[in-house]
Amino acid sequence: MRATEAVPRAGPEAAPPPFTRVAPALFIGSARAAGATELLSRVGVTLCVNVSRQQPGPRAPGVAELRVPVFDDPAEDLLAHLEPTCAAMEAAVRAGGACLVYCKNGRSRSAAVCTAYLMRHRGLSLERAFQMVKTARPVAEPNQGFWSQLQKYEQTLQPRALSRGEPAHPEFLIHQALARYEPAKL
User: Fold this and answer.
1) How far is the CA of 82 from the CAs of 43, 179, 183, in angstroms?
2) Quick one: which of 23, 53, 85, 129 has the fewest CB in 10 Å?
3) Which residues are within 8 A (CB) of 161 and not within 5 positions of it... i.e. 6 or more apart?
């Protein structure tokens, strides 16, 4: 299954799938996804990241829940949750499982967390990571506050990679170089 493909439907008249694949072992969806017990099992989801304060957790046996208690409000501090959340997601993937990230509508909070994960553990730039999320889930659109926090997160990730001797992602290096040179104001 490619990143742009939806989780298969049960039949021609079935409702749209509750979640879609962003990347290997990474899925995004709405709160309805947590109740798709059979689908969660079929695609190997072992961790559901519930990015909400009020949405129900998964009901599938053997699926753990990590709750990130934030509202879809630009003033919420999602940044504080990104490192531990991404670490838990990567641990689930390394253990052979997959992650479903969801919020109420699968639009802002879950998109921001999936984007952060791709930046942190797949070495993608913010732009490229978000494009992958948006391709998988066209309604994805982190609110302005979350987008600003993702920009800050991207800035913190590059010095870490460099300090570990890892090469900086080429997209990031180009972006950083261009950011230093603002067009002259007339």
Assistant:
1) 24, 24, 33
2) 53
3) 123, 167, 168, 169
53-87 pLDDT, tens digit per residue, is: 999 999 889 999 999 999 999 999 999 999 999 99
pTM across the whole model? 0.80
Q: pLDDT digits over 90-145, tens only?
A: 999 999 999 999 999 999 999 999 999 999 999 999 999 999 999 999 999 999 99
Distance CA 134, CA 139 (A): 7
- Residues 157 and 175 sit within 8 Å (Cβ to Cβ): no
Q: Which residues are catalytic?
A: 103
